[in-house]
Design goal:
Elements (H helix, E strand, L loop, with lengths): L14 E3 L4 E5 L4 E6 L2 E5 L2 H6 L8 H11 L6 H13 L3 E3 L4
Antiparallel strand pairs: 1-5, 2-3, 3-4
Helix pairs in contact: 2-3
Length: about 100
């Protein structure tokens, strides 16, 4: 199986869900999912917690800060960066356009 493509981006840039993708809770799957025209990606556990915060108002740094406040004593930065860089590589998220 191929390694997921990771694309780094500015950690201070506000990020949003890309056009043609939708993030939602899917009761039938009992997890959060990303829907797109060709299918669906299941996001179990912490990946759903991260994606809940990708709403066009927060940066990666802001998401990390919020998660570390919600889950004190756990170093989350590396896992959040890894997940969001893969999500960006898959085209699920994008830095929000300035202006």
């Amino acid at each position: 199986m191929a390694q997921p493509q990771r694309i780094a981006f500015d950690h201070d840039a506000v990020i949003d869900i890309a056009k043609y993708y939708r993030f939602q809770w899917e009761p039938a799957q009992n997890c959060h999912v990303i829907l797109y025209p060709e299918g669906m990606v299941k996001l179990p556990g912490s990946s759903g917690e991260i994606m809940k915060r990708v709403d066009g108002t927060r940066s990666l740094n802001g998401i990390v800060a919020e998660l570390e406040q919600q889950f004190p004593g756990i170093e989350l930065r590396a896992d959040v960066v890894d997940f969001l860089e893969v999500a960006h590589g898959n085209g699920w998220i994008k830095p929000k356009a300035a202006g």
